[in-house]
Each structure stands twice: as structure tokens, then as C-alpha cells.
């Protein structure tokens, strides 16, 4: 997984040295409750953080388009969140070529534009790597994430049934002309 540099950030693979930070971010209910289907269970141990980091590397090994990168603020060397590209698997029939991008920050790092800066660079890198479209799905009431997708210039498709996770989702898609 290659590193990506932006004006303020280093986007790089997570390592074992990030375990405590991964635990600190994923132990916060108000972060993880937006990332998956319920039940939302905050992370509790360093062993779980290690497993989370290992899974990011396993996904990349299965499919190099899949990347989960730490968002490190270059000036202070602190990891404040994660940005990712992952394969989407349809509930009714496996993988049909769709990938999603997503992001999350420690709340202390919000409001500074870090997630937008990271997502823009990650998406550009994914397009450079051969993907031609990314889906962005979120709970319909996830206003901060929707605002971020709009800042990126993603095309808003509205709220619909979620073919990958079930339930309802607010969907965006982004392709190179929109970035
Ligand atoms: C989604 C999430 C990453 C958005 O975080 P965020 O801080 O709003 O997004 P950014 O880091 O891009 O920061 C943008 C904000 O910083 C402000 N900002 C301050 N300095 C800035 C700068 N130098 N450059 C750009 N923006 C800056 C922007 O104006 C914007 O503020 P606003 O929302 O008041 O308009 C965050 O809410 C989160 O982690 N949520 C929980 C997990 C989650 O929902 N993930 C998505 C699942 S679909």
C-alpha cells in the first residue's frame, strides 16, 4: 500500500505502532455508530485494534484496489483517522465491480478539513490506479459525511434501498470528471 502525501497529511498504511490510536478512535460510539450496521459495539482492547489493522492489510492482499490508510497530520506526526476504498458485495449476488470510499476521524480532529483533504487525495489515487467510479453510502441522517461528499463534488443520488448493506442509504457516486 503506497503512501500518499497532501499539503498537510500523510496517508499511509496502519502499522502495529498505531494500535493505541486505532483503539482510541474506534472506542468512541459516536464514530463507530456511523460506520456499519447495528449493533454498534465500541472497540475495547488492543488485540481488537491489532485485528482491525490486520484486516486492512488482508483486504489489500486480496484486491490491491482495496486500501485503508491512516490519516496522519504531517506537522505533528499524529494519526487522526482513516480513509478507505473497499469492494462492495451485493446482498443479492456477490461482487459486481463496485467499490466504495469512506472516512472517519477522531472527533478532536474534526472541523479542520482533514477528512476532505484525505478523501480527495485517496479518490484521485484510486482513479490513477484504474478505478473509474466510487460509491459513497451513508446513513441518511449523516450530515457531516454528506457535506463532505458534496464538498468533493460527488453526484448525489438521494436516499434509496442499500443493495450492499440493507436498509436505507443516502448515496453519492464520484468519477474522475467530478473530482
Ligand atoms: C464524516 C466526518 C469525517 C466529517 O468530518 P469533518 O470534520 O466535518 O470534515 P473535514 O475534516 O473535511 O472538515 C470540514 C470542516 O472543516 C472546516 N475547515 C476548517 N479549516 C479548514 C481547512 N483548512 N480546509 C478545509 N476545511 C476546513 C470546514 O469549513 C468544514 O467545517 P463545516 O462543516 O463547519 O463547514 C466526521 O464527522 C466523522 O468522522 N464522523 C463519524 C464517522 C462517519 O460518519 N464516517 C462516514 C461514514 S459514511
Overall description:
The chain is of the alpha+beta class and 179 residues long. The chain has one domain (4-130): Aminopeptidase (3-Layer(aba) Sandwich), CATH 3.40.630.30. Helices cover 30% and strands 32% of the residues. It is built from five helices and eight strands. The protein has a five-stranded antiparallel sheet, with helices on both faces. Strands 6-8-7 form a three-stranded antiparallel sheet, covered by helices on one side. A hairpin with a 6-residue loop joins strand 7 and strand 8. The protein is globular and about 35 Å long. The mean pLDDT is 96. Bound molecules: coenzyme A. Coenzyme A binds at residues 31, 34-35, 102-105, 110-116, 138, 142, 144-145, 147-148. GO terms for molecular function: acyltransferase activity, transferring groups other than amino-acyl groups. It holds the Pfam family Acetyltransf_3. This is Protein N-acetyltransferase, RimJ/RimL family. InterPro entries: Acyl_CoA_acyltransferase, GNAT_dom, N-acetyltransferase. Keywords: Transferase.
Label the CATH architecture: 3-Layer(aba) Sandwich
| pLDDT averaged over residues | 96
* Count of distinct strands: 8
The set of bound ligands, ions and cofactors reads:
coenzyme A
- The CATH class turns out to be Alpha Beta
Shape: globular
Give the helix/strand class: alpha+beta
The string of secondary-structure elements, in order, is: EEHHHEEEHEHEE
- What percentage of amino acids are in beta strands? 25-35%
Number of domains: 1
Give me the CATH superfamily.
Answer: Gcn5-related N-acetyltransferase (GNAT)
Number of helices: 5
The fold-level CATH name is Aminopeptidase
Q: How widely separated are the two ends?
A: 22 Å
Q: For the CA atoms, what is the radius of gyration?
A: 15 Å
Task: Give the fraction of residues assigned to helices.
Answer: 25-40%
How do the strands of the widest beta sheet line up side by side? 1-2-3-4-5
Amino acid at each position: 500500500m503506497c503512501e500518499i502525501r497532501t499539503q498537510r497529511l500523510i496517508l499511509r498504511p496502519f502499522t502495529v505502532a498505531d494500535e493505541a490510536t486505532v483503539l482510541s478512535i474506534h472506542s468512541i460510539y459516536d464514530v463507530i455508530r456511523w460506520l456499519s450496521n447495528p449493533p454498534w459495539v465500541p472497540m475495547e482492547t488492543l488485540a481488537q485494534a491489532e485485528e482491525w489493522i490486520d484486516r486492512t492489510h488482508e483486504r489489500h492482499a486480496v484486491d490491491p484496489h482495496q486500501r485503508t490508510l491512516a490519516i496522519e497530520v504531517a506537522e505533528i506526526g499524529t494519526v487522526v483517522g482513516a480513509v478507505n476504498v473497499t469492494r462492495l458485495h451485493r446482498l443479492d449476488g456477490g461482487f459486481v465491480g463496485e467499490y466504495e470510499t469512506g472516512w472517519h476521524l477522531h472527533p478532536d480532529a474534526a472541523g479542520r478539513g482533514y477528512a476532505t483533504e484525505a478523501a480527495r487525495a485517496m479518490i484521485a489515487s484510486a482513479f490513477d490506479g484504474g478505478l473509474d467510479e466510487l460509491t459513497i453510502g451513508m446513513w441518511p441522517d449523516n450530515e457531516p459525511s454528506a457535506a463532505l461528499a458534496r464538498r468533493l463534488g460527488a453526484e448525489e443520488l438521494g436516499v434509496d434501498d442499500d443493495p450492499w448493506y440493507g436498509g436505507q442509504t443516502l448515496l453519492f457516486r464520484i468519477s474522475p470528471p467530478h473530482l
